[in-house]
Amino acid sequence: MATERNYDQLLTVTFAQPMPYEWSVGRHGSRFFQEIRERQRFIGIRCPSCGKVYVPPRRVCGPCYVEMHDLVPLSDQGTLKAFSIVNYPFLDPDTGRQRPIPYTYGYIQMDGADNIFSHIINETDVDKIEVGMKVKAEFKPEEEMQGHMADIRHFAIIV
Amino acid sequence: MAQRVAIVGTGQTDHKSHRADVSGREMIQEAVQRALDDCELSIKDIDAIVIGNMDHFESINYVDCWSVEGSGGVMKPIMKVTTGGTTGTSVAIAAYYHVASGLFDRVLAIGWEKNSESDTTAAIITCSDPIWDRFSYSGAIPSLATEASAYMKQYGATQEDAARIAVRDRNNAMNNPHAHLRRPITLEDVMASPMLAYPIKLLDVCPRTDGACAVVFAADGKAQKLTQRPAWVRATSVRHTYTWFGDSTDYDAGLVSLQRASREAYLKAGIKNPAEELDVAELYLPYTYAGLKWIEDLGFCGPGQGPRFVGDGNTDMGGKIPVNPSGGVISTNCIGATALLRVAEAAIQVMGKGDARQVPDVDLALATGFGGCFWSDVMILGAGRP
Lengths: 159, 386
Prior knowledge:
The structure holds two protein chains of two kinds.
Chain A: H1 27-39, E1 42-46, E2 53-54, E3 60-61, E4 66-67, E5 70-74, E6 77-86, E7 91-92, E8 97-98, E9 103-110, E10 117-121, E11 134-139, E12 152-157
Antiparallel strand pairs in A: 1-2, 1-5, 3-4, 6-9, 6-11, 7-8, 9-10, 11-12
Chain B: E1 5-12, H1 24-38, E2 48-52, H2 63-66, H3 68-71, E3 78-80, H4 87-100, E4 106-114, H5 120-125, H6 140-155, H7 159-172, H8 187-192, E5 195-197, E6 200-201, E7 210-219, H9 223-226, E8 231-239, H10 256-269, H11 274-277, E9 280-282, H12 288-297, H13 306-311, H14 328-331, H15 335-351, E10 364-371, E11 375-382
Parallel strand pairs in B: 2-3, 2-4, 9-10
Antiparallel strand pairs in B: 1-7, 1-8, 4-7, 5-6, 8-11, 10-11
């Protein structure tokens, strides 16, 4: 290391290199992003045992521990169940840079689904956002989509 | 049947924001030596070790191997157990299992963290699913804040109600010489502190701490010879929900993992009315709103009654069930050690070694761990041999 160091103090050693990974989205997860790109709609998956509909779709219902196959179309709207307006700086491990703030982290119950979907809400004024509001997904233009959660640009409050 | 087990010694570092004077394994050794001194054992007397911290935090993934000089694990059976925020209670419960099985007589549980060595929030984000959750997830504070937003909407709780928890815990920390943040605060200080993630302000949430904790578990017959007043393990319980944030956050139902874990532990310990029968509780409350809501999930009071139960002084020192005499997580948060500190502090209360933070005549003490994706561990300790 060529950095100038003060050897009179207690020393630390720094690591700051990129470490790339590649994660498999899986069959149902890939279909989710395909539907978003081709039809701008959400799909979920229904458990044959308990009937619960999960979004995003995945292979196994955890509590029942059975494999799911029954994909179901959902709307692009839902209800805001909880939120927080993120206002402090932090490193984003996806980029190695600080994530832009403020932004609003929201838990959304999609119409027709039984679990909660996490995403971003495009409202950072605490006086204009409330638990229980209806929200609607807004998507990136098809040519900018990457098969990534960012293909859904954010959710907008509609009521 | 399982062998009876008791805690006979505890040790912890003097917690600080940055321990540049020691490496992680040197810091671990400080806590281990204090735990051994507490029960007058040498490392030669220890049959096995369970150690844990937060994966990724120091970028050291084989902590069991890397730490052996500090843990005392050279040529001993040693295992790493890591379950996120619950790591500290998980190492305690795993050490308990070791002794309860009858295979080991004296087992050391160790939890530690050097939060100063990485960006805590970035490290926590790597616990979330890389495809589905990481895009919007921003670490512990905002995900806890969502719970607070739902709780406030459901029951009308206020930011002032929550601030009361920070004032209680931070002022209790004045009695604990090991605590990290030892400066008294007022309700006004909390309300005036910067908003980090609505509705959580700076003084509503735990700090980042460098520190370690170690606890010695011993078998029935051995424990009584090591200390006059061992802290007997009366019950343990572990409940993990999903790893997806959207599946573990049904706020209409509450913190289900803690409800289920505590009910199982109460049943095992024969406790019917926890607020009346428990003498003290060391709870993993990483933020103030948890001090209102999670005591409801623990059955100390009914749903929505947390603010009044706390406001009436029931959880203060001298109250019906003092919570966090140590100052709790809001005063000290070396994450992999945090839940083990709850176990150690509960044991200290049962053993009567709490000095200025001692609650009088503790017969039953509750310790909890929280972490992962809204996961819960519970341990109940008692003065009486079960």
